Structure formats: structure tokens, C-alpha cells
Amino acid sequence: MKLVTAVVKPHKWEEVRAALEGVGVTGMTVSEVSGYGRQKGHTEVYRGAEYDISLVPKVRIEIVVEDADVDQVVDTVVQAAQTGRIGDGKVWVSSVESVVRVRTGDQNEAAI
Amino acid sequence: MKLVTAVVKPHKWEEVRAALEGVGVTGMTVSEVSGYGRQKGHTEVYRGAEYDISLVPKVRIEIVVEDADVDQVVDTVVQAAQTGRIGDGKVWVSSVESVVRVRTGDQNEAAI
Amino acid sequence: MKLVTAVVKPHKWEEVRAALEGVGVTGMTVSEVSGYGRQKGHTEVYRGAEYDISLVPKVRIEIVVEDADVDQVVDTVVQAAQTGRIGDGKVWVSSVESVVRVRTGDQNEAAI
Amino acid sequence: MTSALDSGSTAWLLTSCALVLLMAPGLAFFYGGMVRSKSVLNMMMMVFGALAVVMVVWVVVGFSIAFGDDLGGGLVGDPSQYFGFKDMLEADPEAVYPITAFAIFQGLFAVITVALIAGSIAERTKFGTWLIFAGLWTVLVYAPIAHWIFDFSAGDHVGGWMANNLKALDFAGGTAVEINSGAAGLAVALVLGKRIGFGREPMKPHNLTLVMVGCGLLWFGWFGFNAGSALAANNLAAVVFANTLLAGCTGMLSWLLVERLRDGHATSFGAASGVVAGLVAITPSCGSVTPIGAMVIGVAAGAICAMAVGLKYKLGYDDSLDVVGVHLVGGLVGTIGIGFLACATVQGSIDGLLYGGGTDQLGRQLVAAGATFAFSFGVTYVLALVLEKTIGFRVEGDDEMAGVDLVEHAETAYDLTPTTGGARPHIAGGTGTLLDKD
Amino acid sequence: MTSALDSGSTAWLLTSCALVLLMAPGLAFFYGGMVRSKSVLNMMMMVFGALAVVMVVWVVVGFSIAFGDDLGGGLVGDPSQYFGFKDMLEADPEAVYPITAFAIFQGLFAVITVALIAGSIAERTKFGTWLIFAGLWTVLVYAPIAHWIFDFSAGDHVGGWMANNLKALDFAGGTAVEINSGAAGLAVALVLGKRIGFGREPMKPHNLTLVMVGCGLLWFGWFGFNAGSALAANNLAAVVFANTLLAGCTGMLSWLLVERLRDGHATSFGAASGVVAGLVAITPSCGSVTPIGAMVIGVAAGAICAMAVGLKYKLGYDDSLDVVGVHLVGGLVGTIGIGFLACATVQGSIDGLLYGGGTDQLGRQLVAAGATFAFSFGVTYVLALVLEKTIGFRVEGDDEMAGVDLVEHAETAYDLTPTTGGARPHIAGGTGTLLDKD
Amino acid sequence: MTSALDSGSTAWLLTSCALVLLMAPGLAFFYGGMVRSKSVLNMMMMVFGALAVVMVVWVVVGFSIAFGDDLGGGLVGDPSQYFGFKDMLEADPEAVYPITAFAIFQGLFAVITVALIAGSIAERTKFGTWLIFAGLWTVLVYAPIAHWIFDFSAGDHVGGWMANNLKALDFAGGTAVEINSGAAGLAVALVLGKRIGFGREPMKPHNLTLVMVGCGLLWFGWFGFNAGSALAANNLAAVVFANTLLAGCTGMLSWLLVERLRDGHATSFGAASGVVAGLVAITPSCGSVTPIGAMVIGVAAGAICAMAVGLKYKLGYDDSLDVVGVHLVGGLVGTIGIGFLACATVQGSIDGLLYGGGTDQLGRQLVAAGATFAFSFGVTYVLALVLEKTIGFRVEGDDEMAGVDLVEHAETAYDLTPTTGGARPHIAGGTGTLLDKD
Ligand SMILES: Nc1ncnc2c1ncn2[C@@H]1O[C@H](COP(=O)(O)OP(=O)(O)O)[C@@H](O)[C@H]1O
Ligand SMILES: Nc1ncnc2c1ncn2[C@@H]1O[C@H](COP(=O)(O)OP(=O)(O)O)[C@@H](O)[C@H]1O
Ligand SMILES: Nc1ncnc2c1ncn2[C@@H]1O[C@H](COP(=O)(O)OP(=O)(O)O)[C@@H](O)[C@H]1O
After folding, report:
1. Is the Cβ atom of C35 under 6 angstroms away from ligand 3?
2. CA–CA separation, E274 vs E249, rounded Å?
3. pLDDT digit string (tens) for D186-228?
4. Three-state secondary-structure class, residue E120
5. Which residue, among D248, D58, D105, D280, has the nearest Cα to D179 in the 3D structure?
6. CB contact under 8 A, B98 and C95
7. Per-residue pLDDT reduced to its tens digit, E80-105
8. Mutation test of the interface with chain D: which of F235, F297, F415, choosing the one with the most D Cβ atoms within 10 A?
9. Ligand 1 centroid to A39 CA: how many Å?
10. What b/e readout covers D171-206, taking b as 16+ CB neighbours within 10 angstroms?
């Protein structure tokens, strides 16, 4: 199994969720994070003074998936979250050795 | 070493913490997240209108453990967090290549 | 590629960020978490009564890096975040199988 | 210099002015807590902005249209008579209270009425257009209706048709304030359309403690609104005060009961809404009913409004914060309730149906309610449509998703975490460029 | 028609009514900020709900029990005399202020007293049972005690025993409000038992800015409570006003000093608590002491209460928000303090021990305090126990863990994040089904 | 006993006292919302602490220095005359209102002035030193200046030089309150130095809803401040009330317009700041100008202050919450504006330059403004420097990074999440040990 971690723009969350539901993803875990990336360096005017802004709000989505589904899930997220502008985010995949469903104790594929 | 990631119901956090302390887990990192899973699809009435609810509050626990302790830690979490009802959460395990304790610079097993 | 996860004291965040920028890290994802570790067991007086405190605020930093940069990034974080006192935090490294930049669809090294 | 001025009544009137002023921030928090966290600043700005714009317009010409000598038919006052509060500053030896205090008191009624409307178009409105709307609406809709119902003929002075010809009763604004804002709220909500996601997402209050802060301040201020409308510190003011308190109490209990029976739980949002429903309904009737009558009015308003707020989902208009469900419906309950519950012991000589007074007064009340609704809805609809078609009244869809706080005001309301403390981003530059920069 | 009505005093009394009304939301925020975030709505609802229920009961029968002609022994007034505020509406040409205003003013005292009790059983109380308790307690406990101490005999009218026979001094409610709520708070806390985790987890205030908002509004409202009790806009009202301000100030400073010396830090929670402790103690004594005396009372109350709030951990009762430590103890400090610090210059003819007046008054004060405590504690304990054993007063353990906001009101207070904006879950359906659905 | 007491004016003065008292919490929230979340409690504590300390000092000696018989040259009053409010408690048959009410009213002006200063040294101040500063500053700076400008000679009584010799006009404190606090704020900000990160990080308001709550309460309270300064419930009070309302409105609109044109967006922080700027400028002038004049003053203050708050970045002083930009600059606008806009119709016999009255009054206003600035800045600078060099006025750098709430008060303001509910850490023990324990 794999863990897909996606960091996307907050107002894209709803579209990403809907798209994932469309490809059969039934579970995920979501958190509010701050992103630091190319978007930094933008300046803003605040009460007449200019500042560099480094952190911007993002949403982080974690999805445990079966090996076979990884590519589809990643593609789905990338498509739904894309605006083509700086700060669209990243998706990364890492390996998961085991999964348990707390309610039943089911393991691995059966637990996803 | 392994990283155990557990997503559980918020009001179970205290019990999970106590159970882990019981099996000698001395450190972990905790965050507030929102979960999306089978619990979705429940509807609620709000000011006379009905809605589907998709996100429910969860607590996410990350524990870096030695290889030998993984099974015990996972079992302990599952037992403490189980209510047997939908939305109890997931636990997954992935591999960690190295760990450092910031205070001392200790590495790997010595750093846990 | 690797994922470096660092949990550090909140008021060290700014120094860590600056140090990482110094070694060329251009992106990272940051979240507010609570830490549980050796710091627990400290007691505090509250309205005349004493309590054990278990959770302390921490900042969690995730950085996806190329394999070659891992050691430098870890060292940089450890140095910048170190105060030498209990609760300085942990840094751990795990393996990442693929990365995508959402904006462009760039993959892996090109996406970092 | 001998003067008729009663310092006690003046003290109460000044206090009442301050109380009604506080209703503006109170409403800003009440409404602000109800929207999603991405829209709270815009919501509060609509209320504060309305306060500023309406007061300026009121001083310049609004007061004069409302309380100047009638220009004919009891329809509108002479706009030049008190233009810029002229000739009002020197002490009038025959006045029991200073006319400036009265003019300010009435101006704050206009403020509250306009600000109430904002609730129906929450989370999707252009701030600049809103300010223009607020100013124009004061002149075109509020001031005339205030003339109709609040301007009593006296001596040489000829006032409005509802108060003097129709002889409808409205102690503190069931028509001019409540039905009026509710009708206008419906009109603008229809023009602007539904929020993205309306009916699919619950869009619950983001901060119920803020809602309660607003509710508390509103209730407090409402004593100035109602008991201040006695324009004297006397026995009537005390009865009105009691009625205002009691209708708020029974409005709350009644709304909570409906929720408990219908949904299984009594909510704090329901409590706050019920208080306001009761206060809305007692506003016209507080000078006509006994404390027992006030409790009945509160019960009726709480229950009817609790059911009315669900209508928008069935009928499909997005009256976001229930201006229609609470202010229009509650205003109708109170205005019409007078026809049933008026009691001559309290004031004047009118008994309602339940006190053996016949259907006469009930008829007058229905006419006043109907006329207010029709005029307000009609004019507001046209005004809002013109603004939407010309300068635009509603923000773009992308901007609405990103949030009106960010897009219209370049701010976010809260930054409570240590990491980003004070460094959370906002976006400079004009609307529409937001997503390019984000 | 010539009338004895003093419009200035009426204005001040109406203003004071509004101020005391504002103390209810003030208390809701003060208490609401102190609980954990999962209980804040329930806490506010207990206060708002008490306001509604108590006022209705007060109009129906409470005022009459408290201020009707004595039925014998100075123990209880005639419940039928002012039943439903009857015969009170028409202007009385001999009244200096409207009786309706007085009745409302006194009713709001009952509201605050009941609402204060809620603090001792925070985070674990069934809302429905609480409302029933509030109504019954007003009739069984508050109204009689108010009769004892607040109902002065005049002309034909015979009042209560403490005020007229014992001649204890209590200007604005050290007994009927403070000691009474403190004693009742202790009783209900004992009946309901400790929160899960009490003594192990600190259970700190979840929102100290909300506590401060509450503290500010309470202080503001307290001027109506105390200076309004002069029932006139006169010199005495001004001195009482000054005393109320000063005791709050020195209560704060004194509490902060204790914290600084004992714990190393002066906290904002301590500042808010110290203000209230000073205000509690000056409530009975504000009409009897000089401004210097008021400062002394404040210092005493701040220090003694700061130490008293730790008692619950030692003695093992969960008086969650320190109703005992602040209101019972502070009420005792003020009520007994009169015996030492009363000064005949301020009002009346009583000098306290320190002004050479002997121990006479001190004795009367002790009897009044003791009688109030005993009656209130006893009746409340039985009432709470009956409710707990019949319909249940405390929520289930699982529900307490999940949070009373969710379980009792199907709401959560805050939703400040963009992702879930307005879509955070609550649970419909009855209590107990929560965990099945969660 | 026949008495000159006017109960209506007394009612209004008592109400005004309560309103001004509420400005202290109002300011605490206004300022508290503006700082980062790690400093909000300390900010609120500085305001509440100032209230307590200043009132105690005022009763003991402050009032007497300000309003006691002049000791010579109109510079300072006799500190022994009203020491401890002595001989002030008994009703004076010749007084129109109780002297205690007047003394409290004036004391609350001192409170607000001191509390305003705290804004310039937000997020880095030792709480203990601040309290000492507040007490000393009241005696050394505020009370003398209040004597100069507020103490009018009457009968035997000789007052201060500005009011009686210079004949500068200042209805409610443009000099003693606004310019004074602004000058002192500049001085302490220079002594304490910049916050770590100033100019690099934006350090934005952490909670704009709290800022708005503060703004609303401040505005509400300001009616007591200004219209209460009429010391009577009369025609002048009503005009002053109108002016206070209108200047706040146009101050808001004008600030928003500057922001819209300069930065592209009108912010809610700007709205709140603009209201206060307008109120500051109308404070001295509210008794001298017409409602139209008040609107002009508000427009000028809003625009000029909106530009002035940027100065600190250019000149490099960290006046953290713009005490200089809003109170000093706004106070100057209002104080000097009188020279242009005074209108004899409103009160007295002075016409300003624009009403054909010549430059005479303008000159007097400039002298008053200059003298206030110079005295306040000079004495404050020395006082702050002495405190910083002896007991220390600013916290350590590490402590500032960790946050003054944690370090000075062992608290954090918010704990809104379920997990840590009520168990979030704070640190006991003295300053400086924090990082060892963290
Ligand atoms: N190396 C990285 N490791 C972890 N997260 C990253 C990394 N680089 C970027 N991110 C996340 O992705 C977000 C978008 O990155 P950014 O560089 O702003 O835009 P883009 O990827 O479109 O060039 C960042 O805000 C951050 O949350
Ligand atoms: N595939 C997944 N990846 C990541 N997190 C998941 C996944 N599936 C479920 N979760 C997390 O586990 C929680 C419980 O899952 P849910 O399907 O509601 O219940 P259950 O596992 O008992 O059937 C979810 O709220 C979510 O946080
Ligand atoms: N085994 C672990 N797994 C995950 N996070 C950990 C673990 N141990 C410690 N941490 C994190 O590191 C932080 C610091 O650990 P702590 O034991 O307090 O100090 P130190 O590492 O200096 O001995 C903790 O607050 C927690 O967030």
C-alpha cells in the first residue's frame, strides 16, 4: 500500500474531494497547514508599509491507497487542484507497510 | 525504525495516550485533523434543512518506534481507540530511515 | 527522494526557516502540532493546585528533498532548532517514491 | 431663561440614543458570528459602513424627508426644511427634549434598518456597491416610510398618512424597521442570487460566542430602541421596558421548544434567534400590550419564526441570515398582533380583538403592513437590479469561493496560532487579481 | 394630573435596569470563556435560559412573593397580590418612579442570582433539567429571601424579617444574591459530583478574551445593580457608584498580588476574578462605607477569595467556576465587613466597629449571613437531589467526554478554519445516540 | 431640605460615568485584538491594571492635584484639599450634581489616558513596571495637565492656566487626553525600542473581531466621555452627542477612502481606526462645532491619521498600535480644528477662522497643544528612562519571542481545540526561567 500526501490550495479542497470520490476513494485525512514555497517573495502593503510574505494557508490531504490505485489517485488530485498558478502545491507518494482499521482490526487491503 | 500514524476519535485521545504510556512509549506528536470516511453520508438537520456531512474531527498521532515495538504499539492503539462504531479510525505503519534528537544530536534508536 | 519531518519548538521556527533558506531549501509545509515527550512530567501551579502537563505546542515541518541533500537539511534543522534543553524535538527521514508539482505536472527531482 | 426642557427625559433620550448606537456593533457581531470565517469581516463592515453612510445622509436630507412638513398626501416630508440639521442647534425654550437628540435617535433607527438588510446578502456582496445602496435606500425607501408612520401631525405641522390618517399603531418600528428591512432583504437576496453551495453545505455560524455577544448587545440596545421611543422617562417607558424584556424571554423559550420537538435539540443559535424574534415582534406592539400580552407576542414570534426560517430552502431563495424569516415574519406577527392584543390600560384608547375592541384596529394594522411591504419590496428590487446591472452588486464566483474578506478587504479575521502569528498572508491589489497572486 | 414622578430618578432606574440586564450576557461570556471549548455553548445557554425562565416566573408569581404583603413572620409575601403584574400598569400619581421599573429591576436580580449558580455545575448539566431547576428555585429560594432582606415595611405594607426586624444592612444583595448563589452553588455541585478528570487535568479557561469581555460587561452592569439600588439619581447613588468602582479596582490588585507572591505570576484570569470578588463584596456594603472603606473591602475580598478558590481541590468538591470561592466567600466578606466598616456619614445612622459603633451591627450581619446560607443550602440540596433522582440533572459520562455542547445542543462553538468552513459536523437526534452516530 | 440637585443631570452624569468606565474594557479589546496572539492577555492586563492603579491614585491624591485650589500660576492644584476624597461624601445642597460623580467621571478620564499609552509599547512590556509607571504618571503628568485645562475658576476657586488665562477651548480632552497620551506614547516607545522583527514582519492584528468589539464599545462609551462633559442633560449635551456620532462616521469613511485609493482595499482594521480617529479629533471640538463642522473634522482626522500611521516605518520608532498616529495626530487635528471651525451658535461666543472669527482662537489652541506635548513628552521620557534603567521596563529578547502572555502571566489566551481542551501548558515560575522549562 502507499500513502499519497497532497498539499493544495484551500479553496480547491472541495473539488479535490469530489474528484476523489468520483474515482472511488472512500477515506482520507485532512489538515490545515501553512505552505512555504515559490509563492514567498510576494510582497504586500500593510498600513502603508511593504512586507514579504512567507507562509500561505494550504490544505494537506493524506490518502492510504492500494498499490494499484496510486497513479489514478495522484492524477486525480493533480487535475482537480491545478490552477496553473504558483502555489498550486505538491503531491508525494511513500510506501506503507501495514494498515489497520481500528473498528474491526481488519488489516492491510481490507482496512483501506 | 518505523513511524506509526494513527487517526482516532478525539475523545479517545486521552485513553490512547494512557495506554501507550503503559507500554513504555515516551514520545509522540499529536495534531488535530478532519477525517473523511464511511462516516460521511450521515445527514443532519440544521435549522429545518437536511445536509450530508463529510468531515468529522479526528486526532492524528505520530509515533516513531523501534522495529521490535511496532506490533505492540499498533495493537495498543487499536485496543484503546476501539468503540466498534463507524469512524473509529485507521492506523498505518511506514518505514523510517533515520531519526535525530535535536537536543543532543543522538541518532536512530538512541534518539527515540 | 526523501521526506524530512522535523518537530521543533515554536519560537525556533523562524530561525529554522531562515537557516533552511540559507542552504537552498525552497519549499516546505508547516503545521501546528502538540508534542508529548520527556517534557511531560513537569508540573505547574494553576489557581493554587498542581498539575502534570502532558502536551506542549510544537511546529512540524515537512520537507521533500533530493537524496543528496538529506544530510545537510537534517543537520541544518538540528543546528538551528537546538537550545540544548528538553523538548527541543525530533527529526526523522523516510523514503519518498515519487513527487509531482501540481501546477505543472513535473515529476520527481524536477518537482521539488 | 425659562425652559420647558425636562432633564430627566432628556437624560433618558440621550441614554437611549447611545443604546441604539450600540445596536449597530451588536448587529455586526450577531451577523458576523453567523457567517463562515472567510466572510466575517465583510459582514461587520457592511454594518459599520451602513452606520456611517446612513448617518451622513440622514443629517443632510434624510431627517428632513422623514420629519419635515408634509409635501402632500402624507407621503413625504419637505427635504429642505432641516437640510443639514439647519436651525436645529439652538435651545428651543418650548422643547421638552432637544430636537437634535430626537433627530439622532431617529437617524439611528434608519441605520439599524439598513444594516439589517445586509444579512440577506451575506458572503457575496461588493462592499463599495453596498455603501452606495445604503445611502440611496435611506432616501428612497426608509425616510418616506418613516414619514408615513412616525411623523405625527402637531399644531401647524402635518405628518404622514399611516400615523395620522390610517391611525395604524407602531410604537417603535414594526413597519418602518422590521417589515421594511425584511421586504428589502428579500428583494436584494432575489437580485443577488444564491451563494455557491447553498442548500448543499450547511454554512453554519463560524463563531457562536460572537453571535451571543451580538445578541446580548442587541437586547441591551433594544431597550433604548423601544423604551426610548416613549420620548420620556415616565410610566409608559417602564411598561414598554418590561414588555421588551419579556417578549425577548418568551421568544427564546418558544424557539427552543420548537427546536427540541422538531430536531431533538435546543441550540444556542436558536436561543439567540428566538430572543431577536421576540424583540422584533414586540417592537411595534410594546406600547400597546400588557406584560402578559408581551409574553404571548414573544411566544408567537418565537415559534412562527423558528418555522419560517426553513422556508428559504423550500422556496429556494438565499436569505442568508434570515432577515425574512425573523424580521419580516416577526414584524408581521407584532404589527398584526396589536390588532388582537392591544389593551387600552397601557396607553391610548385602543383595545384589540381579544380585549373586545373589534376588528377595526386589526384592519388598520394589515393595511400598514401591506403598504410597507409592497413599497419597500418594489423600490428595493428595482434599485438593487439597477446596481447589479451597472456597477455590479455581487462578487465573482472565484472570489466568493476564496472569501469576501480576502477579496474585498485584503484581510482574514483570525490568526490565533503562534507560528504564523501576525504574518498570515493577505493579498494586496484589486479584486480579481487574487487568484493570480495566490 | 399632578404626579410625584421624578423623571431623573426614573431615567436612572430604567438605565439601571438595562445595565443589570446586560449582566446576564456578561456573565454568560465570563463563565463561557472559563470552561473548555466543548462546553462553552451549554454554559452560555444556562445563563440565557435562566434569564428567560426566571423573568417569566418573576412576572407570574415571584415578584409578588418577594414584595407582596407579608403573610406572617416576615417570611414570605402574598403570591396573589401582584400575580402576573396585575394592577401595576397604570401610572400611580404618588410614585416617585414607576412600580413596573422597580419590579423589573428586582426581577433581574433574581436572574443574576440563578445564573450565578450555573457556574458550579459547568460542563456536565442537562439543559432541560437546569431550566426546571431555575424556575423552581426562584419561587422556593430566591423570592422568599428577597422578601426577608429587600422588602421594607412602609405605611400599611409589612415586609421581611431581616430588613425590618433584624435590621441587617444589605444595600444591593450580599445575602439574597451573593451568599445565596454561593450556598446554592455548593449544594448543586455536591449533588452533581465532580467532572471526569477533575483534579487531574487543569481544565483551564478556553478563551480568556471572552472571560475579559464578560468581566468588562459585568463591571459596567454592576453600576446599575449597586447604584441603581439607590432608586434615585442622588448623592447616595454617586457615592455608591464610586464605591463600586473602587472595590473592583482594589479587588483586582489584591488578587494579582496574592498570585504574584504565591505562584510567581499575576494572571489575567486572576485579574478578572479579583474584579468580581471586589464587586461581590461591595454589593451589600456599597451604601454603608466610604470610598476608603470600599477600597479596604476590595482588598480583603480579592485576597481572601484568591485563597478560597483553592479550597475545592483540598475539600474535593467540583465548584467548577468558583461560585463558592468568589460569591459565597466574597458575599460573606462584604456582609460581615459592614459590621466593621459602616460609616454613618454615608447613609443612615449606623457606624461599624472600626468607626466606634460597637459589635451590635456585626451581630445582625452575622445572623443575616447565617440564615441565608442555611436556608439556601438546605432547600437547594433537596431540590437538586430530587431532580437528579427523578429526571436526571447530570449528563452521562460518555456524553460529558464528548462535550455538552455537542450532546445537549448539537453544536460546536467555533469553526475558524477555511477547509471545513460552515461544514463541521454536529449530531442530530437525542442524547445518548451520539456515540453510535459519531 | 431644599436642594439644587438636578436629578436628570445627575442621572446623565452617572450614566456617563458608567459609559466611560466601559471604555477601559473597550480599549482592552481594541488593543488586544491588534497584537499577535501571544501578547493579547498582557495587552488587556495593561489596560485593566491601569484602570485599577489610576483610580486608586486618583482617589488618594490625583483628583485633588487636578481640581484642588491652584497653588500658583495655574500649574497645579492643592493635593491635600480632597486627599482621599475627604469631605466630599455628604450631599451639598447647592450642588446641581454630586461632586463624587464629577470626581469619578474625571478619574475615568485619567484612566483612559494612561491606558491609551500602553498601545505604543505593546508586546514587550513588564507588567509590574507598567503598573508603577501608571501610578506615577497619573500624579506627575496627567493630574497637572488636567488642572491646566479642565479646572475652571469659579467663585473663590482658582483653576488652571490654559482654561482660565490662555482660554484655550477643549471640551472633553483633546489636550489632556489625546495629545497627552500620544506624546507620552511616543516617549515610552522611544525608551523601550522596537519589537524584534519590527519592519520585517507585518505583525498584524490576531483577531479583528475583537478589534471590532473594542471599537464598538469605545464608540458607545465615548458618548459618555463627550456628551457627559456637558455635565448636564441639556441641549448642548444633545449637540455634542450628535457631533460625536458624526465625526466617528466620517472618520471611518475618510480612512477607508484613503486605503481604497492607496492600497486598493478598504480594510476592517481601517474602519475601526478611522472611527477612533474621528472620535479623537471631535473630543476637544465637540462643544464648539456644528454637526456639519463635526463631519469636516472627522473627514480631516480620518484622512490625516490614515497617512500618519505609516510614519513610524519611515522614522523608525515602534509605536506599536499607533498611539502617535491616531491620538497625537488626531488630537492635534481636533484641537487646532477648533481655531478654524468653532461656531458661536453652538456654545459661548467664539467663532473660528472659517466663521469669520480671526486667528485669535487658533493661536490659543496652538499654544495649548504645544505646551501639552512638550510637558508630557519631556516628563514621560525621563520617567520611562529611569524605570528602564532601574527596575527594567522591557522584557528579555527570548521572553519577547516566546510571548509576553506566557512569560509575564503564565497564560495563553485561546485553547479552542478538543484534544488539549483545558490542558494546554503554561509555565509557572519567574521570568527568565521559561526557556529552561519549555
Ligand atoms: N520541498 C517541499 N517539501 C514539502 N512541501 C513543499 C515543498 N515545496 C513546496 N511545498 C508545498 O507546496 C506548496 C506550493 O509550492 P510553491 O513552490 O509555492 O508552488 P509551485 O509548486 O507551484 O511552484 C508550498 O506552499 C508548500 O506547502
Ligand atoms: N484511505 C484512508 N486514508 C487516510 N485516512 C483514512 C482513510 N480511510 C479512513 N481514514 C481516516 O479514518 C477515519 C475513519 O474512517 P471511517 O471510514 O469513517 O471509519 P471505519 O474505518 O471505522 O470504517 C476517517 O475519518 C479518516 O480520517
Ligand atoms: N517517539 C516519538 N515519535 C514522534 N514524536 C516524538 C517522539 N518522541 C518525541 N517526539 C516529539 O519530540 C518532542 C520533543 O521530545 P522530548 O522527549 O520532550 O524532548 P527531547 O527529545 O529533547 O528529549 C516531543 O514534544 C514530540 O513532539
Report:
1. yes
2. 8
3. 999 999 999 998 988 888 999 999 999 999 999 999 999 999 9
4. helix
5. D280
6. no
7. 999 999 989 999 999 999 999 999 99
8. F235
9. 8
10. bbbbbbbbbbbbbbbbbbbbbbebbeebeebbbbbb
